[in-house]
Structures are given as C-alpha cells and as structure tokens.
Design brief:
mainly alpha
Length: 286
C-alpha cells in the first residue's frame, strides 16, 4: 500500500459489506417480483386473447374451446365427478401408475447406467441392444403392453418404465463416464477398492447427471401412463381425455391437460427440493 493511503477501519468495512448485502438482497427480491409479474402478465394476455378470440368468433370455440368453458368443465368435474367417477380417483390412478413406473424405471436406469459405465465389457456387449430397444417407438410398445398385460395398471406401468428407463440410464451412464479421472486416480493411489471408488467417488460425481434426468423422466413417466390409458384403460386421466375426444368435447380435453400440468408442476417442485437437499455441496448458480 502506498504511503498516501491508509487502511479503512474494520468497523467501516463491515458496515460497507452489510450495506452491500442489503442492497443485493433487495435487488434479488425485486427481480423475483418482476419475474412473477411478467409470468402473470403473459398468462393473462394468453388467456384473455384466447377468450376474446372465441367470443368474437375469430376461432371456433367448438374446436378450440375457451378459458371460461374449460374452467366450467373443471368445476363440474370437481363438483359432480366425471363419466368414469370422481375426478380425484382418475388423478390418483394416473399418479399411482406414474410414480410406480418412475421409481422402477429410475432405479433400473441408475443401476444399469452405473454398471455399464463402470464395466467396459458389459457396455460393449449391451450397447447395441440398448440402442435398438431405445429406437422402438413408445406408442408401439404401449399397444404391445395393452395386448400382453391387459387394460389394468400393469400395462401403463410398463410403458412408464420404458419411457423413464432410457432417459435415466443415458444420464447415469454418461455421468459415470464423465467422472473426474484425476480424482479416481488419487483414490486408487490411496488404496481405495473398486467398490469404494464406485460408491464414494463415481456415484457422487454422477449424481448431478442423475438428478437432472429425474426432472425430465417424471414427465415422461406421466406421458407413458396417460398414453397407456389412452390406448386402453378402465380409469385414469388418459381415458378421460379419450372419452372427451370421442364426444368432441374440446373443453374436456383442455381441462384434463390442465389437471395433468398441475400434477407435473407439483412433482417437479418436490424433485427440485430433493435435488437441493442432495446437492447441498454444489456451489449456487449465478
């Protein structure tokens, strides 16, 4: 430090840091409120434009419905139930199929991804078959599952498992392959066994990849369950959509889509909270 400058007192430095912290927190709050306000504005603009277009006959409400009719349909389902029974039963059936398929497909994808990522021989042997299975259209598999497993829950769970498995498997496999080679080498030098390397180094390194895939894969599990119900079911939101489509009830189709979107948003919120808990060590993103 030059002779003409003197260090600031510690108390003054602390006060400056405290002021900067308050200013930064206020800016973050303002930014959050701006984002919320813009989201609400976009929603109001879209729904208002849709309602106005339908009322002015710029679009045909028979085919495209309108927000007021969709809301009335949801209220009717909640109050009087659907043609298949209470609305909450249909949501519960689809959600049960989704969660079971998500868990089975997710756990299977993680295990297989780690095994093949850590074993080059297994990866070389099974990689071709996994690519072939992944290239088969899911809708075709849904029809096969309905024929083989019937109209019950099993066929929907099977399709949800297939939808989830390949997403999670790909991320787990890549996450294992992208593990820090220098960290693995240092652990080996320190005498870590292959099992210790996998559990203490490789899996934690791949956890970000795996958890990122879970956000996407839950949506795929929901799609699998709904598509399976659409192809053939006794209950569920997919059957509700199929019934509304058969009756040319556009409001019913959109209403079911909104209910499914609400379920997906709640699930994504839960998964985000889980990810933050498991990845406390990761630095916060700017």
């Amino acid at each position: 430090m030059s002779p003409g400058h003197q260090a600031l007192p510690a108390s003054l430095s602390d006060e400056a840091l405290a002021r900067e912290s308050v200013v930064a927190q206020a800016a973050i709050r303002r930014h959050r409120f701006v984002i919320i306000g813009l989201r609400i504005a976009v929603l109001v603009l879209v729904l208002g434009g849709w309602e106005l277009s339908a009322n002015l006959k710029w679009i045909d409400p028979f085919f495209y419905s309108q927000p007021s009719l969709i809301w009335a349909q949801i209220v009717e389902w909640i109050r009087d139930g659907t043609s298949q029974g209470p609305l909450w039963v249909q949501v519960a059936v689809t959600l049960e199929e989704t969660v079971i398929g998500f868990l089975i497909g997710g756990i299977g994808g993680i295990i297989c991804g780690i095994l093949l990522g850590r074993n080059k021989l297994l990866a070389d042997v099974f990689s071709l078959y996994i690519q072939i299975a992944n290239s088969i259209p899911r809708v075709v598999l849904g029809s096969v599952f309905v024929i083989a497993l019937g109209l019950g829950m099993a066929s929907k769970v099977a399709l949800a498992v297939v939808m989830v498995f390949f997403v999670v498997f790909g991320n787990a496999f890549q996450g294992v392959r992208e593990a820090d080679k220098y960290l693995i080498a240092n652990a080996r030098i320190l005498g870590a066994s292959k099992r210790q390397l996998t559990t203490s180094v490789v899996i934690p390194s791949a956890m970000s990849w795996i958890l990122a895939s879970l956000h996407v894969s839950f949506g795929f599990a929901l799609v699998g369950a709904v598509v399976g119900e659409f192809l053939g079911a006794k209950q569920g939101m997919g059957l509700l959509i199929s019934t509304a489509q058969g009756a040319f009830n556009a409001s019913g189709v959109f209403a079911a889509m909104i209910v499914l979107a609400a379920v997906a948003l709640v699930a994504d919120f839960i998964l985000t909270r889980l990810e933050k808990r498991l990845l406390k060590w990761r630095p916060a993103a700017f």
